[in-house]
Amino acid sequence: MTAGAATPVDVLGPVDRSIDWQRLAADHWDRRPALLRPSRTPGPAAPFDRHEVFEGAVAAGHHTTADDDERVRFAVGPRRLTDPGDLLPRPEDGSFAAYDRRLQRQLGGAPFTLVVRELHAGHHPLWARERAFFTGLWDAVGRPLVPIGTTLCHGTSEPPRPSPSQPRAATFLYVLHGHHRIRLTGPEKRRWTATAAPGDLLYWPAGHEHTLHGPRSPATTVHVSVPRAPAPLIGPSSSHGTWGTVDTLVPADESPEDLPGTLPPPLAAALHHLRQETRPAPLHRRLAREVLRQATDGGLRPVPPPTRPGYFTDDDAVRATERVVWMPAGGHRLVAACGHITRTGLTARELGALLGRLNSGAPLPVSELTPPARRLLARLSAFRAVERL
After folding, report:
1. Residue 259: which residues within 8 A CB-CB, separation 6 or more?
2. Which candidate, 183, 191, 188, 232, places its Cα nearest to that of 210?
3. Where are the beta strands (DSSP E) in the chain?
4. Neighbours of 58 (CB within 10 A)
5. Is the dihedral angle over the CA atoms 278, 282, 286, 291 positive or is it negative?
6. What 3-state DSSP class applies to 169?
7. CA of 215: how far to CAs of 6, 108, 145, 160, 162, in Å?
8. CA nearest to 9, candidates 167, 170, 203
9. What are the pLDDT digits (tens) for 273-310?
10. SS3 (DSSP) at 26
11. Which backbone phi and psi does 4 adopt, to 5 degrees?
12. Would residue 173 be called left, alpha or beta, if left means φ above 0 and alpha means ψ between -120 and 50 degrees?
């Protein structure tokens, strides 16, 4: 095959009205692109819902601050706006269609682009849907330990241009609105082409460039980035050290003669903190928290923040909506659900009995619970892991 010839991407149809993850894992994962065409029947089989995506964009715009302005980007033509103000989605818009009509009036038809990173972090139903959808893939190929990224791209078409290569991340592109022609260029300049309609999910491995040809009217896609290689903890250093630079591990020349004999107070405090945190019990607790997060967050971090703790009376009964897990760590008992972790004073036996009843799916009368169990229940309610019946 010549470098100039573009190969149509393989189309994988649904199996039992769901994605054929087994075929993707066996024939395409980390090998070549594939277009996953799920069942067109409405239901929970889709990774994203357009109403939840819109609400997630509203939440991201509402909570964005100067400290995390990279999370939400808005551009008019080629010009990025540092303060888009009311050009971001608002609750009163209600949908992308109404939002687009408002921007048509405000911008006079000028092309615009809205990009929201960490889309899942501000909307729990969206996060839960995405996590459930990709569970089948992680069962087949294993879930990456590095957090998975979710990025919304919405706006009118710009002149197509290749996007930068992602050497360490595979990508899923889900089309919510609009028809798109995608050209992919992989290693050794091998090329693929695909046409994606609303509801289609396009996969390509790490190390590919993509060019997206969208419609002239506003279109909506969601990109899911799956890390395939861990990022280096320490970046490359120069071959010669210099005193005072952050990337110097061992200076190449002689140390200055006027160095103080003791550490400055900030460094001494940092060293003391490191010694305290690396004692067996604190270190065990930190490792346990990481294990519990990995077990409950589906790889989608940061997770949506918890709500207010619930308040239950003796007349209430509750039921678990999420699986709740726990682990002993450094003399404490840690409990986790939906990527959140709390500590409980219940004994291991009491905790095992309580979570056994919750995870069975059976209703649990609150009147049967002790005060420590009720406090834990309130926290699990804030995690959205239990609901009042």
Report:
1. none
2. 183
3. 6-8, 10-12, 34-36, 72-76, 79-81, 112-117, 149-155, 169-177, 180-185, 191-196, 201-204, 209-213, 219-227, 317-320, 325-329, 332-337, 340-344, 364-365, 386-388
4. 21
5. positive
6. strand
7. 21, 18, 36, 11, 17
8. 203
9. 888 777 777 788 888 999 999 999 999 999 999 999 99
10. helix
11. -85, -15
12. beta
Contacts of 151 (CB under 8 A, 6+ apart): 115, 116, 117, 118, 119, 222, 223, 224, 225
CA dihedral 96, 102, 104, 108 (to 10 degrees): -160
Instruction: Report d(CA 300, CA 52) in Å as an integer.
Output: 16
Report pLDDT for 243: 40
- What is the reported pTM? 0.85
Which pair of structure tokens corresponds to residue 205? 């491995």
- Are the C-beta atoms of residues 299 and 121 closer than 8 Å to each other? no
pLDDT in tens, 105-119: 999 999 999 999 999
| Token pair for 34 | 């594939």
Q: What is the pLDDT of residue 235?
A: 43
| DSSP 8-state symbol, 66 | G
Q: In what order do the strands lie in the sheet with 325-329?
A: 325-329, 332-337, 340-344
Contacts of 223 (CB under 8 A, 6+ apart): 149, 150, 151, 153, 171, 172, 173, 174
Numbers of helices and strands, H then E, in the chain? 8, 19
Per the rule left: phi > 0, alpha: psi between -120 and 50, beta: everything else, 361 is left
333 or 255: which carries more pLDDT confidence? 333
Q: For residue 311, what are its two tokens?
A: 């308040």
Q: How far apart are CA 321 and CA 126, in angstroms?
A: 15
Sign of dihedral through CA atoms 91, 95, 97, 100? Answer: positive
Question: What pLDDT is stored for residue 255 in this prediction?
Answer: 58
pLDDT tens digits along 63-97: 755 455 688 999 998 899 999 999 999 999 999 99
**For residue 168, what are the contacts with CB-CB under 8 A and spacing of at least 6?**
206, 227, 228, 229, 231
Quote the tokens at residue 46: 């889709």
Tokens of 343: 């500590």
